Amino acid sequence: MSSTPATLDLDLMREAISTSTLSHALKFIGDRWSVQVLMGAFMGMKRFDEFQERIGVPRRTLSDRLKMLVHLDILRPRLYQERPERYAYHLTRKGMALYGMVLMVWEWEVQFGNQRLSLPTRLIHRPCGHAFRPQMTCTACGEQVTMRDLEFTLRPNPRLPHDTGEPLRTPKISAQDAGFASLALRLDRWSLLIISAITLGCRYFDQLSYVLRIGTAVLSRRLATMVETGLLQVATDRDDGRRRVYLLTPASRALFSYIILLATWANDHQFHEPSSIRPRHRTCGAPLQPRVTCSHCHAPVHAWDVSFETGERP
Ligand SMILES: [Zn+2]
Ligand SMILES: [Zn+2]
Questions:
Q1: What is the distance in A from the centroid of ligand 2 to the CA of 66?
Q2: Distance from the CA of 282 to the center of ligand 1, in angstroms?
Q3: Contact 280, 287 (CB under 8 A)
Q4: Which domains does the chain have, with CATH numbers?
Q5: Which ligand sits nearest to residue 145's alpha carbon?
Q6: Can you give the pLDDT at residue 31?
Q7: Centre of ligand 1 from the C-alpha of residue 281, in Å
Q8: Ligand 2 geometric centre to CA of 98 (Å)
Q9: pLDDT tens per residue, range 135-176
């Protein structure tokens, strides 16, 4: 990060986050079930009952999420039975473009999740024939990208709508759920926005509250849970012993590829506008256009090239 807390422009950051494509995209596909339904679709699930049985999503929630994904033109329903009417849900082109993001969620779950989800244990890249881990790389130079290799320019795009700050219906996170942390509880909109704000340079409670427009009671509950579930670390400020600073952990830094890929998808396929937060790859100097490649052969990974293995984790 080039910015230090002393030089942060909090008003600019508040404006940029509010008009970022990430913030908007997280509203429709930032909750546990949407991500799991998408992951299921990439694993070949198509019918309502299949999603319901294999993911364990409540019927009403599943029906809401499928409607939302159809509305966004990510899934397309096809009638496969007339009486009673039954639909199969197929990924559209726009939906297929979310593949890299879904792979990075899989990667994160394998590393940091609690393994309660019935996820495939291995991914095989058919063109090279090897088991692989998905990696986010820079399209311009082909190098693997981690959060530390990026710098961000904030330039609020006036053509993007402002986040009205409407609360999203996300699952409530409570302290007793903390032991059961997984994709389910950790990948929600506010956690991802908090991680993004810290990445952009926020360190203190009051900075986060201002930049994200979150009330202090809600923010303090969220931060406490994120600390308990290993997404944040809290430390005493080196310059002022009375203040506490919030820091990212390996688990939250690793969520970064997911965040970047979702935001890029939203720029290219949903808003057709550059986001107000623009990442640049420091190593090569190019604006970051991320893609997901195979850790074995380094070729870009496409959905049709991957097979899933389930069973014992190696
Ligand atoms: Zn690069
Ligand atoms: Zn490969």
A1: 32
A2: 7
A3: yes
A4: 5-26+98-309 (1.10.10.10)
A5: 1
A6: 77
A7: 5
A8: 19
A9: 999 999 999 999 899 999 999 999 988 876 554 444 443 333
